[in-house]
Amino acid sequence: xxxxxxxxxxTSGKRNFKGANLHQAKLTKADxxxxxxxxxxLSGADLSEANLSKCNLSRANLTNAxxxxxxxxxxxxxxxxxxxxxxxxxxxxxTNLSHADLRGANLKFANLMDAxxxxxxTSGADFSSANLQxxxxxxxxxxxxxxxxxxxTNAITTPPETSKEVLxxxxxxxxxxxxxxx
Length: 182
Hints:
- There is one protein chain.
- By secondary structure, the chain is largely without helices or strands.
- It has two helices and no strands.
- The radius of gyration is 16 Å and the shape is elongated.
- It starts with a helix and ends in a 19-residue tail after the last helix.
- Residues about 160-180 have low confidence and may be disordered.
């Protein structure tokens, strides 16, 4: 589906786009509040400054997507693939990012206040100057991330002395490519 058709259907009132193929779609500044894009392929898409508040992007593929300055407040991004995504200045306040794959993502200046990042893979992610106040980081590997000037006030973390006794099993994700194959 191309971006023009997608936006036309959204404007007409359709909200369920589960599994949609929007690979490299140009959706800059689009107002997509409440849309269901679960399991969609948005790899390489440009969603910079888009309003995706309260949307469902669970299990979506956003590899290398540009969400710079987007609003995802209150959204469901559980099990989402955000590997290498540009997430600078994104508003993730009260967003569910549990089991998300954020490896190598750029989260500089992102607002993750009250976000759920439990069991998220954040290795190599850059959280420089990000707001992680009251974020749930239990079971995530946040210690493998860049945290310069990040605000971790009242963040919920697993104490290092107990994490040594916990067996962490990595998640296995199968992502649908833009060509539709696994």
